[in-house]
Design goal:
The chain has 213 residues and is of the alpha/beta class. The strands form 3 sheets. Strands 1-2-3-4-5-6 form a 6-stranded mixed sheet, with helices on one face. Strands 7-8-9-10-13-14 form a 6-stranded mixed sheet.
Length: 213
């Protein structure tokens, strides 16, 4: 699997394209905020002759769904989101107004994203429920390439914020320990913001998890 990232929007959110077999791809958390960023995403897909087949949202905070409307209408792909994050999804317009952000409302999700295995583009993705940052936050693991799309659960040297509606600090720490830190050290964590890191590095050095905790 090939994994490509793009930093979009006023929150510097990481949007991912996962490329599978026969030039098919999955778009994860499109954060495109304006026409320029939409062109960047489209040009990459078209220059590689890719065919998007699905749109996945790790969770429904506004910075991760800003580009949903564009992607959905541009490529007519099904939108996957956990039903547990629908309350956040439905508050996106009010959050945009609160922060004075431009936001075209996302189309409704087509498929309820649940933990288990998702087979798309010839790729087998393990879907893990990792709540704490958001109630329905999902993480995607491609074991063959040791790749984790971890959204806003874990960052290089930090964790996702838990002071937003639906957040829970202790739940997030527990989720990371049980769902991410049980993976091998050499798995790469592609985060929702900032640089990528590895499970081993964060297990050893992340200040939110003192040695032995």
């Amino acid at each position: 699997m090939e994994c490509h990232s793009f930093e979009f929007g006023p929150f510097a959110e990481n949007t991912y394209i996962l490329i599978g077999k026969e030039k098919q791809c999955i778009i994860v958390d499109p954060g495109c905020y304006n026409a320029h960023e939409e062109i960047i995403l489209t040009d990459f897909i078209q220059s590689r002759n890719l065919h998007p087949v699905a749109l996945l949202n790790t969770h429904a905070h506004i910075d991760h769904i800003m580009g949903n409307d564009y992607v959905k209408h541009k490529w007519n792909v099904p939108l996957y989101l956990s039903h547990l994050d629908i309350p956040l999804f439905e508050r996106a317009e009010s959050m945009a107004a609160l922060w004075n952000l431009k936001y075209t409302p996302s189309p409704q999700p087509d498929i309820d994203l649940q933990k288990g295995t998702l087979e798309l583009t010839g790729l087998s993705l393990e879907v893990c429920h990792v709540p704490g940052h958001a109630p329905g936050h999902m993480v995607f693991i491609h074991h063959d390439s040791k790749t984790v799309i971890c959204g806003d659960t874990l960052f290089q040297g930090s964790i996702g914020r838990t002071d937003l509606p639906g957040g829970n600090h202790e739940e997030l720490l527990s989720s990371i320990r049980e769902q991410l830190f049980t993976l091998p050290d050499d798995y790469t964590l592609h985060c929702g913001h900032g640089p990528s890191t590895t499970v081993g590095h964060e297990r050893a050095h992340n200040p939110f998890f003192p040695a032995g905790s």
